[in-house]
Amino acid sequence: MTPWVRRLLIANVLVFFVTQLQPQIGILLALYPAGVLLRPWTPLTHMFVHADMWHLFFNMIGLYFFGPRVEARLGSGRFLVMYLVAGLTGALFSFLTPTALIVGASGAIFGVELAFARYWPRDRILIWGVIPIEARWLIAIMTFVSLQGAAMGGGGIAHWAHLGGFVGAAVFIFVWEQLSPAKSFKARASGASAPPVTARVLGDRSALERWSRIRPEDLHEVNRAELERIRRRLDEHGIASLTPGDREFLDRFSARLN
Predict the structure, then answer these.
(1) What is the DSSP track for 165-233?
(2) Could you list the pLDDT tens digit for every one of the 258 residues in the chain?
(3) What are the distances in angstroms from CA 17 to CA 7, 52, 212?
């Protein structure tokens, strides 16, 4: 369990029990797009309110299973920002159904699931613990279902919020990857103004030596699994196969050794 996944789970459960005891609080926190000017806090607070136990359960299961690896990959601060961006974008898309009452973390959770599929597209997910499907195809199916549901009027499900969560997370990840130091490094290393080959080789050797000092036993189990995956890629395909996210992950944990 990573830090922000744990905190978000606790926050959602606590708010659920509070709103069960005091339903009027849930109404004050829910998003009613047509009345957002009267309750401007609701695009944020609605994602911590759930209609019933099953609504809470399925959203928190998604956060529990997908969230830790995504948080380990992005870093805790960026994970929280992406989670909130996805939830707020879900709220924005909900304005397409202005008279609906919107509650739930689904937009944010859909964003987390999209991020998972971005970095581990071929990982298999067991639907209901039985049916295996790769993460990338699961997201494709969820997108299709949400589009179809939105076109048919929703049926009591916030399909536009789900789609908004996908869009918000996708935009966040794209911007982060473009601005990350590792992306800049890769661009410099492959561009016309790339440093001499000798300098690049020495830089790679220095990075490999620094990364090799990361001790798996010092890491959280989620980070340890990610480290092992990246090291397998290094062993099988070499340093050129690392993504900007892989380099940023290794740099982040090797920096702690200095």
Answers:
(1) HHHHHHHHHHHHHHHSHHHHHHHHHHSTTPPPHHHHHHHHHHHHHHHHT--GGGS-HHHHHHHHHHHHH
(2) 889 999 999 999 999 999 999 999 999 999 999 999 999 999 999 999 999 999 999 999 999 999 999 998 898 999 999 999 999 999 999 999 999 999 999 999 999 999 999 999 998 888 877 888 999 999 999 999 999 999 887 677 889 999 999 999 999 999 988 886 555 444 444 444 444 544 444 567 788 888 888 888 888 777 888 888 888 888 888 888 888 778 888 888 887 665
(3) 16, 10, 47
Q: What are the residue boundaries of the structural domains of the chain, listed by start?
A: 3-178, 181-257
Task: Please state, in angstroms and as integers, the Cα–Cα distance from residue 203 to each residue in 181, 185, 208, following that order.
Answer: 15, 11, 9
Spatial separation of the C-alpha atoms in residues 171 and 85, rounded to whole Å:
9
Instruction: Specify whether domain 3-178 bears CATH 1.20.1540.10.
Output: yes
Phi, psi for residue 131 in degrees, rounded to 5:
-90, 115
Amino acid letter, 40: P
Considering Cα of 80, then 139, then 123, then 64, what sign does the dihedral take? Answer: positive
CB–CB of 15/51 below 8 Å? no
Tokens of 41: 């806090």
Indicate the SS3 state at residue 146.
helix
pTM for this entry: 0.73
